[in-house]
């Protein structure tokens, strides 16, 4: 980009700042500045102003969390807006932030008035800064870099100050460009391919920002406002509403993954059970998508793209192939990328359905048969149910059928695997709990007015009365937490695994068009209206469900706990319910013995040792704040990581009597083949196997206590009868 063009952009930026000040100054000043503004900068509309006022009204009347629009909240809105525009502090200068800060206590007034001019003015300055940075990047891209110099590139600037001036920002971007080049060099790309890739990447950043329409700016600012209340309230523009509807129907020809923007990357938040990505293997939660290709066509670099544009590339005709270039979550931002091919398809209900198998384990010299039910989601075919189909599918119906089959299998205990189950239909969580308890309350729901409704299982029938364990992890959320919490509160079974996600709030989707007399499409508002509480009075929100037996490898900083403004954990009055089984005292004694046995088993278990080390290494990579720009050092670091992972894997395999891998390539090929194997052909993972052993111990110790209680009862009867 020519220097004269950069100068024009710089002048435009100054005018944008003056425009911002003119908004809060006199009308003549604003009119004078507005006349000098670039004509292609989007402007807010009267429809958007009405929509903002309507959203503010609905938030005030409907939201579970009472929020006062005051100066403190106004400041949070501005901070949120700047973070949404420039999360990596890669564009705005400190002088810009100083100018914006003059408005920090006025956004509450702007929202009440439906005034969007300040938000649009800030965006115009942002667009100018993006143009300046891209101009610098394209110019600097053609100049040489010295990869023999020892210097570092900062990956995460969240806690660092904004760049003081253009000179400091140029230095930040020089290192960023150098890192981008080095990362591509380490993947084997030649100089021509690298320059072509980065030219397209940087040019797209400017093009993407220039393609922002008025509705896009409005949605960005409105979400900065509503997400400042709490993380699960959001606004969908008319275009985003259609995408949301497609996702809710689960009928898109896509890959079956929940994606979100993470700085300039597209992050895989969750792989949907039963979807193409899940069935094909390879793609995992926390992976970052950096490229998308159609069939055998060249990959398109998508770093810096808007999320909906990335999703648009991933979607396509059914049975067609999409190729994803991903940075594996465990490798951090500077690792080697992988190419994953996925055949697009619909997410079919039968692929999300409950599945069963029987596992055998030795316990106290005897063989125990443990039934396993893997439950990817809480589902129900609402269309078939409402259509009167007597054979409609649902979680509870399918699990009831599996439990009846287990009767014929003569199992000694049951494990329900809820790992990765992000929830689903609340009614199914309640009904499923009813298969394991007598009638009674399952969950309490408190609305925004403080009124508490208790959802109950009305059926006194218990379909399965035997020993029960529920396996959970950090991705078990919402309906999964309601079920696990109820099983724990009723002392109906033991909960094993990691603390769950902590998603204990209820959202409602409001069609804003219902409140409009015009034919304008206003979009939709997803608003938090209630909070879940367990029957013991504890909320599942924020803290989630803490298992009775927690893996030593479990982390805590994930799920709802990563949000600064998440609705906090609370406790209300417990519901009236009768626990199932043993007294709390004997339950604690049994759990203590289970923990002791578990720790004894894993102390020298090669698989647990392996996983603990891998988890530690992955966390270190995710926590890295900077990377070296010295090529030999970078190569050495990557080689060291590969060698360390290979060494850990081979130690594990040797301990298990398996053939070690010759090199990293052989290990990676094996991992990919394992991920692509059908679920039914895979060996149970170590956490599942250990859960089965724990349940087997639970059966043994529980029977000991039961016999002891029966003996005590017999002695008491003998005394009373005078024997």
What brief labels describe this structure?
single chain, disordered C terminus, 23 helices, 2-enoyl-CoA Hydratase, Chain A, domain 1, globular, six-stranded antiparallel sheet, six-stranded mixed sheet, Pdz3 Domain, alpha+beta
Textual characterization of the structure:
- The chain is 46% helix and 15% strand.
- It folds into four domains: 3-229, no CATH class; 252-343, Pdz3 Domain (Roll); 352-580, 2-enoyl-CoA Hydratase, Chain A, domain 1; 625-682, no CATH class.
- The chain is globular, with a radius of gyration of 29 Å.
- With 723 residues, the chain is an alpha+beta fold.
- Strands 3, 4, 5, 6, 7 and 8 form a six-stranded antiparallel β-sheet that branches. The protein has a six-stranded mixed β-sheet with strand order 9-10-11-14-15-18, with helices on both faces. Strands 2, 12, 13, 16 and 17 form a five-stranded antiparallel β-sheet that branches.
- It starts with a helix and ends with a helix.
- The longest helix has 36 residues, at 686-721.
- Mean pLDDT is 87; it is low at 1-39, 246-252 and 719-723.
- It contains 23 helices and 19 strands.
């Amino acid at each position: 980009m020519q220097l004269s063009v950069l100068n024009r952009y710089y002048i435009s930026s100054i005018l944008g700042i003056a425009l911002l000040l003119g908004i809060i100054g006199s009308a003549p000043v604003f009119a004078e500045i507005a006349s000098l503004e670039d004509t292609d900068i989007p402007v807010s509309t009267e429809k958007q102003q009405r929509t903002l006022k309507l959203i503010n009204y609905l938030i005030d009347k409907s939201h579970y969390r009472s929020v006062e629009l005051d100066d403190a909240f106004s400041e949070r809105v501005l901070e949120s807006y700047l973070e949404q525009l420039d999360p990596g502090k890669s564009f705005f200068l400190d002088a810009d932030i100083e100018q914006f800060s003059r408005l920090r206590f006025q956004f509450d007034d702007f929202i009440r008035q439906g005034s969007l001019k300040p938000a649009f003015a800030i965006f115009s300055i942002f667009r100018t800064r993006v143009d300046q940075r891209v101009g610098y990047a394209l110019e600097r891209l053609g100049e040489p870099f010295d990869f023999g110099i020892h210097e570092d590139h900062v990956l995460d600037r969240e806690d660092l100050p904004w760049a003081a001036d253009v000179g400091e920002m140029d230095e930040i971007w020089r290192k960023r460009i150098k890192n981008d080049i080095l990362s591509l060099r380490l993947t084997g790309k030649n100089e021509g391919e690298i320059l072509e890739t980065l030219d397209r990447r940087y040019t797209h950043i400017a093009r993407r920002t220039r393609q922002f329409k008025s509705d896009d700016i409005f949605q960005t600012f409105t979400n900065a406002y509503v997400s400042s209340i709490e993380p699960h309230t959001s606004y969908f523009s008319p275009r985003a509403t259609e995408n949301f509807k497609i996702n809710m129907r689960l009928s898109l020809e896509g890959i079956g993954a929940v994606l979100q923007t993470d700085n300039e990357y597209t992050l895989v938040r969750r792989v949907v059970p039963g979807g193409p990505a899940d069935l094909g293997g390879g793609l995992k939660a926390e992976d970052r998508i950096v490229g998308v290709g159609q069939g055998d066509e060249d990959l398109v670099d998508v770093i810096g793209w808007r999320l909906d544009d990335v999703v648009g590339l991933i979607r396509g005709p059914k049975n067609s192939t999409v190729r994803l270039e991903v940075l594996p979550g465990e490798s951090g931002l500077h690792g080697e990328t992988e190419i994953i091919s996925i055949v697009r398809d619909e997410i079919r209900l039968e692929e999300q359905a409950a599945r069963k198998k029987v596992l055998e384990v030795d316990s106290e010299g005897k063989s125990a048969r443990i039934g396993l039910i893997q439950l990817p989601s809480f589902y129900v075919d609402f269309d078939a149910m409402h259509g009167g189909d007597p054979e409609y599918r649902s979680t509870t119906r399918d699990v009831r059928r599996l439990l009846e089959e287990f009767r014929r299998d003569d199992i000694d205990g049951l494990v329900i695997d809820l790992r990765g189950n992000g929830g689903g239909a609340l009614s199914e969580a309640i009904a499923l709990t009813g298969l394991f308890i007598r009638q009674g309350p399952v969950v309490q729901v408190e609305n925004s007015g403080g009124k508490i409704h208790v959802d109950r299982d009305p059926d006194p029938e218990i379909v399965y009365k035997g020993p029960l364990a529920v396996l959970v992890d950090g991705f078990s959320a919402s309906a999964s937490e309601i079920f696990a919490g109820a099983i724990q509160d009723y002392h109906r079974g033991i909960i094993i695994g990691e603390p769950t996600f902590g998603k204990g709030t209820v959202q409602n989707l409001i069609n804003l068009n219902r409140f409009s007399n015009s034919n304008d499409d206003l979009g939709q508002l997803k608003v938090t209206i209630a909070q879940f509480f367990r029957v013991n009075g504890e909320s599942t929100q924020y803290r989630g469900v803490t298992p009775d037996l927690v893996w030593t490898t479990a982390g805590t900083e994930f799920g709802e706990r990563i949000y600064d403004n998440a609705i906090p954990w609370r406790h209300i009055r417990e519901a009236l319910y009768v626990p199932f089984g043993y007294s709390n005292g004997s339950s604690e004694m049994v759990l203590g013995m289970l923990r002791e046995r578990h720790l004894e088993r894993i102390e020298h278990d090669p698989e647990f040792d392996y996983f603990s080390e891998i988890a530690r290494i992955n966390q270190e990579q995710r926590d890295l704040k900077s990377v070296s720009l010295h090529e030999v050092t970078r190569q050495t670091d990557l080689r060291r990581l590969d060698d360390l992972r290979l060494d850990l894997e081979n130690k594990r395999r040797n301990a298990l009597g398996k053939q070690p891998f010759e090199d990293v390539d052989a290990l990676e090929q094996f991992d990919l083949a394992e991920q692509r194997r059908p679920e039914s052909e895979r060996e149970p993972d170590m956490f599942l196997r250990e859960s089965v052993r724990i349940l087997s111990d639970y059966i043994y110790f529980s029977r000991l206590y039961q016999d002891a209680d029966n003996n005590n009862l017999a002695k008491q009867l003998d005394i009373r009868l005078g024997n």
